[in-house]
Structures are given as structure tokens and as C-alpha cells.
Design goal:
Layout: H1 11-16, E1 24-28, H2 37-46, E2 51-57, H3 69-75, E3 83-88, H4 96-100, E4 108-112, H5 119-129, E5 132-137, E6 155-159, H6 175-184, E7 190-194, H7 202-207, E8 212-215, H8 217-220, H9 225-241
Parallel strand pairs: 1-2, 1-8, 2-3, 3-4, 4-5, 5-6, 6-7, 7-8
């Protein structure tokens, strides 16, 4: 059975409780050991991660090529928390059916505003398929591109590196955008930050409004991934309390 989590509430209950903004940790498996993927995922789940973040790349929207439905189907057998399927693809609508067939209802379909599809149509189709939705924007993209969608999605994902590869350095220029989105968003909307997050900067992004912390190398390349998860949560929680 899947781990009980606020993420797993029915859609109606999820929206009713969105005003309760809690820190959540998403472990991005792009930096996990592909030869020990099951072991790595179990380890971070035991440490209390709230989401497994899965980067899906098509080789066109970004130059890299990564995990597809076949991998997600395997992950479903071991993942006990929601999956965030981060689609870095040109046409996300083409992948909704494929991923819904192998994912769990209530998993997140995270797509980019910079993709070539109509974002509202992607949101509609993904929700009808049983996904929760997140709109994503790259570092150069202005927050105004997604402001009119904030009331239609379950989460906003702010990229703090240019998408495509793990291990990049955090881009601090996204901080004003992060703060602006927190101020403009409906009360309690989850805002995820992804890219170059470490124990050194997680407090900074949490203080600017991020409450879903996606981390790859900071977790899976750490000497003790379980402790890294706990450290990231503690540092983010402390910073979020001081957010004004």
C-alpha cells in the first residue's frame, strides 16, 4: 500500500487543504544510481520524502534523453509516495495517456509553459486522465507567462537551473520570480523549486516561498542520503517560518 500522505487526499479534499503550506521534499532520481535505483528509492522513502521526482526528457525540448513510461511502470511497483512526472518535452499532451497507463491516479503531471501545446488544454486533459497538474517555467521565463494559470493547477514548478542535466549550479536570479509567484498565487498553492538545491541554499528558496523542495545530487550524491533528506527538510522548515 502507498504511504499515507497529504498528497494522497482526494482531489476535492486536496484543494480544501491547500491553505496549509507545508515543506515537502521531492527526491529527484536523475542523480540516483541507475544500478541501485530500487535500493536508493527505498532508502529515501524510509527517510520520509514526500515525492519521487521523475525527469522525462525527449531529446528535443532539452538535449538529453531520459526516462519514459517503461521506467515509470517499474517505479510504480516500489514507489509508495506520489510521483512528480516532470515532462521536459515539446508536446506534453502526446504523453498524457502513455504515462497515465503506468502511473497512479493523483501523481503529478508537470509540464512546461515553454512547450508547444496549449497549456490549458494540457491541464484539462491531464486532470481528466486522473493526474494532478503542475505548470513549470524555466529560469529565463517571466512569471507573467503563468500567472493566469495559477488558479487552475495544483502546483507551480520553478526551475532554478536550465533543464536537461543534474549537477548544475543554482541560478539565484530566479529568487524574485519565486517570491512574486508566492505573493500572486492562491493561498496555499504548492510551489516547487528544482535545480541546484543544496543544504547551503535551501533556506534561501524556502524563505522566498518555495515549499516543495526537489533535490537530486544533494540527496543521492550525499554520503548519507537519508540524513540529507532530513537536513533539507529541517533547514527549509526553519526558513519558511520566518517568511514575511
Amino acid at each position: 500500500m502507498r504511504k499515507k500522505s497529504r498528497w494522497l487526499l482526494p482531489e476535492s479534499d486536496f484543494r480544501k487543504t491547500r491553505h496549509k503550506v507545508n515543506i515537502k521534499i521531492a527526491a529527484s532520481i536523475l542523480a540516483a544510481n541507475p544500478l541501485r535505483l530500487e535500493e536508493d528509492i527505498i532508502k529515501v522513502q524510509d527517510a520520509g520524502v514526500d515525492m519521487i521526482h521523475v525527469d522525462v526528457m525527449d531529446g528535443h525540448f532539452v538535449p538529453n534523453l531520459t526516462m519514459g513510461p517503461f521506467i515509470v511502470k517499474g517505479l510504480k511497483q516500489i514507489v509508495k509516495v506520489p510521483m512528480g512526472l516532470h515532462l521536459m518535452v515539446e508536446y506534453p499532451s502526446r504523453f498524457i495517456k502513455q504515462f497515465r497507463e503506468v502511473a497512479n491516479e493523483g501523481d503529478f503531471f508537470e509540464f512546461h509553459i515553454e512547450s508547444k501545446d496549449d497549456p490549458r488544454e494540457v491541464i484539462r486533459q491531464a486532470k481528466e486522465a486522473g493526474f494532478r497538474t503542475a505548470i513549470t517555467l524555466n529560469p529565463p521565463t517571466h512569471q507573467s507567462k503563468v500567472e493566469d494559470l495559477l488558479g487552475e493547477v495544483d502546483m507551480v514548478l520553478v526551475m532554478s537551473v536550465n533543464p536537461g542535466f543534474a549537477g548544475q549550479k543554482f541560478i539565484p536570479d530566479v529568487l524574485p520570480k519565486l517570491r512574486h509567484l508566492r505573493e500572486a498565487a492562491p493561498e496555499g498553492l504548492d510551489i516547487e523549486i528544482d535545480g541546484g538545491i543544496t543544504e547551503e541554499n535551501v533556506a534561501l528558496v524556502a524563505s522566498q516561498g518555495a515549499n516543495v523542495i526537489a533535490a537530486a545530487s544533494a540527496i543521492f550524491k550525499a554520503p548519507d542520503p537519508s540524513q540529507a533528506v532530513k537536513n533539507l527538510r529541517r533547514l527549509a522548515q526553519e526558513a519558511s517560518r520566518s517568511m514575511v
